[in-house]
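Ticket #4471: complex job returned nothing on first submit. Input attached below:
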Amino acid sequence: MNSLIIGQMVVSGALMGLVYALIAYGFQLTYATSKSINFGQGELVMISAFFSLTLTNLGLPYWAMVPGGLLFGAIMGLVVERAGVRLALEQKSEGWILLTIIIGLFFFSTAENIWGRDDRPFPTPISADPINILGVDVTRLEISVAVGVLGIMGLIELFKRRTLLGKAFEAVSADRDAAELMGISATRTVMLSYGLSGAVAALAGILVSPITTVGPTMASALILKAFSVAVVAGLDSGFGVVLVGMFLGALESLSSFYLGSGWREAPGLILLILALAVRPTGVFGKAIIRKV
Amino acid sequence: MKRILLLRGAELIVFAFLATIPLLVVNPYALGLLTLLAIYGILLIGLDVTVGYLGQINLGHVAFLGLGAYTAGLVVTKLGLGMAPALLASMVVGLLLGGLLALPALRLEGPQFALATLSFAALCTTALNELEGLTGGAQGLSLSRPPVFDHVLTPPLFYWLCMALLAVVWMLMRNLLASQWGRAFEALRDSPIATDAMGVGTYRHKVAAFALGSSLGGLAGGLYAFNFEYLQPQSFTYDLMIILLLGVVLGGRKSLWGAFVGASVIVLLPNLLSNRHLFQIFSGLGFAMALAAGLRGLVKKTTRPFQALAPVVAMGILVVGGLLVENTEDWRKAIFALMLFSVVVGLPEGLMGFLSIFLAKLFRVPHAPLPAPTDIETLLPPRTADGSPLLMLEDLKRHFGGVKAVDGLSLSIRSGSIHGLIGPNGSGKSTLVNVISGLYTPSSGRILLRGAVLPSGSLYRVSQSGVARTFQNLQLFAELTALENVMVALRGVYRSPLPLVLLGLARREERQAQADALCLLDRIGLKDQALTKAKDLTYGAQRFLEVARALARKPDLLILDEPAAGLAHPDVVQLIEIIRRVHRRGISILLIEHHMDVVSELCDLVTVLDGGKVIAEGTPDEVKRDPKVVEAYLGQPASPSEPSHGGVEPLPA
Amino acid sequence: MLVVDDLHGGYGASEVLTGTTLTVKKGTLVALIGANGAGKTTTMRAISGGLKPSHGKVILDGQEVQGLDASRIARLGLAHAPEGRKVFGPLSVEDNLLLGAYGWLPRFFGFHAKAKEDLERVYDLFPKLRDRTKQASGTLSGGEQQMLAIGRALMARPKVMLLDEPSMGLAPVIVQEVFRTIRRLKEEGITLLLVEQFAKSALEVADYAYVMEHGRIAVEGTPDELSRNERVIAAYLG
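Support reply: We reran it on our side without changes. The output follows.
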């Protein structure tokens, strides 16, 4: 096989994998503060993408649409937190698993009806013409994905390290009760984490839609892969998700090529089950010393 | 007796009624719906095992429906066999693959488990789609119902078959869940640690439960295939899974009736949605119920404001939506979502849960009378205690990173004695207890029980060796009654093999277990509260219950981990009496305590720990006067200089 | 400054506090001693909001705070250095200290400048922390973490500081250092409520002390009165 073609597959796949990484990063944000994640995150990506599409169709230029889409995503994230997560956290139960699934379903159905069931193209001023770098064709669009993903992750990390609010965020992740004693409201911090997670999901949608089109099915297509990345990398791995995401994307690209497009999903799923099986304490967090 | 008659009577009436349906109903569509009801009933009973009894979100159940369906289809089309082998194959496939998935998946909890089952379901769909040679892929697989005993199964006959199978599954599951198996499932949901410590293997029961539920899913799948006579992978998707969850949660978890009610809802839903008028009535009713329940909860302060109001908002959206949208069919998923949301938040016990409380108040059927308690001499014959060393710890160490919680500890407990273990906070008492009982493995050193090395690192294996314990932070099975808590732990009573249990032929050992458990409850003074749920007992009663439960293990060594913690004085007195009674049976006791009066009253010998090491050992009086012990507890003065100086003097480095 | 009146509360079915009453006057150091399981830490948690009391009052500087969220009570001027120190491991020493002042510092930018004076004050008190200002606090020794926890509480410019078992798990030499620090805090006029397992050390620094037994105050008085009281000794060793 032509190594150049393989290289092409790997690079394109890896760039797509960055999108999975970004969604996984969104999971990390909420998991850090509340040990919960939004099982309906895929739907959140999807409706934010649709909303952004509508903004564009209403005549908003691209660079004004992006913050609008991000804001929408943040608000939706807050809705998820209020409706699906807060009650379960107060009751110290895991009811948020089912509730976030339900909210996701609701978003899905609403999107289907407002925007229809077909996939729609997502216009973007960034060109899809390939540039040849080291023998591999990469489009400006694909590069924009990388820039967007790394950019927002970098920004949020900067926020976490440079602002006091960001440090408070880290504090709640480290020790919720002790943080409360400092005057940091854990509830508000959880809200913030869900808002950020929503914005991140929206950006993922905006970045990926020009390449894959927007449609209701994009939710389920993306979400399992994002789960795989999050679990394999570990929900407290920070930038580890980037590496795992790229790896998964490349793997998918290759398996789609060699085994047929139907098997595209398989590596991610198998990886997920294996990761969960091999690290029994749960890749979600470090080994906990049980106290009785 | 009355209670059982009432319940069985209700079941009989319903099934008898259902059996007569084909004779009354001519409409094939209605018959088809009821056939589907039976199939979904079986499916939901299977799902309830993991969702209701184990308390986990199982997102993979729909995969077993699909696997069962395709298995049956392939057995008939490719192997040319009949219905019975096909259905059997479906069940076996469900059982095996369920067990296989359970092995890794059930090491996980909560979200990870949900994810593992979700990916399994997605993998199955992919496999069904891609293995076209076998399954026909997206084109689908057609099959026809094979004849049974040379009779072609007309719709009425097929309906009877499905209902009969539902009745059989119902009966078998009822018997299973009423036995020790059912208790074990609930126990491991409430406290997996205590379940292992009481000799009921948590992991193996979880795997068994999951495999069982999946095999029922497989069976339902086989019937599904014969019902529709056409299969495609797209039928077994995430959407259907959500609907199944809706059925279980709405109908009521941990309830066979709940599964039935849930199945009815699922089957009737499409009709509900296509008929606009019906939908509006239904949603209006739902809204009214939510409003009533919400207001009641707010006024009585039994629910948080969000819990009371959110279902009202959700149902309100349903009502308004029903008036505004053109085609309710298009909004199916949103409607399911709103319904499921209202139920999960506002009616977590589901319809059956709610109804049973209501019916119980209405009918006030007394519980079946309990058997007479077993004689204590039969249950726990006194052992001869010869004072020889029962438990020996040899240079035991346990580190956590840099922290040396137990640092070279050697100890000997004589059989028939009550041995006290005391020490200030952080001295290593709890860690020591957790190492002995198997929660932690030792970093080095040995533990010998009667001269043989005690298995380490496994609560379950230690419990099998004749060691039982209580927990400093209560680990009761909160949702089980006091009686059931003790029954779970009983040793040597449950001998019937599974088939007998399923057929309901293990009643005698159940009665024996009840009698034995009552005996133990009597010893601690809780006989009258045998049928109270553990979570509803007073704190003192809960502490005593843990002791009774540990006693059910008929142990040689009983470890009591701060049993008097938080007890008021009268309860402490009663606790001392209980421990004395246990001691008279010849059971050796290791007592960890802070309450010095308890230790002084009871202990023959006391070991004092500090910093993970033994600093003193002797009778309670000797130990109290030991200067090292006094120092460990009260602390040294801050500086050797006189307090009246008040100034701060630098100490030599 | 701090008044606790007939406090009842506990965990689930267990009522640990059965009517605790104590007072901390401004500028004094009050010690709360008693055997393990008597309810000292539970009392602290009930005061600072980690636990909602079932009955009774907590009055901070004239304002009733029982039942409020812990973060709210903290912002009203109560600093609690909890049992086990609980520093934010992954964050640096400096970050921990800055977070102590979360209640009054600007949230986004400019907090470094505003906090400078207070940080200096803490570093003067604990020179070892100055050397380790950028170090991850989880890597500090037990004694250093205790200093950090106290420093963190100081940063809040609190009206009342709660110190919960500062000596726990520390070597005797370090414990002495901790108590020297506590003396210095007292000299600066800080109002302190100290919970300690080691009665003798606590009585040496306290202006007034309460002895807890079974969830309520059994004996109270000045350290002089208490050290001669046989009941105090009995409360520990039965």
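Chain A touches chain B through 46 residues (CB under 8 Å). Closing as resolved unless it happens again.
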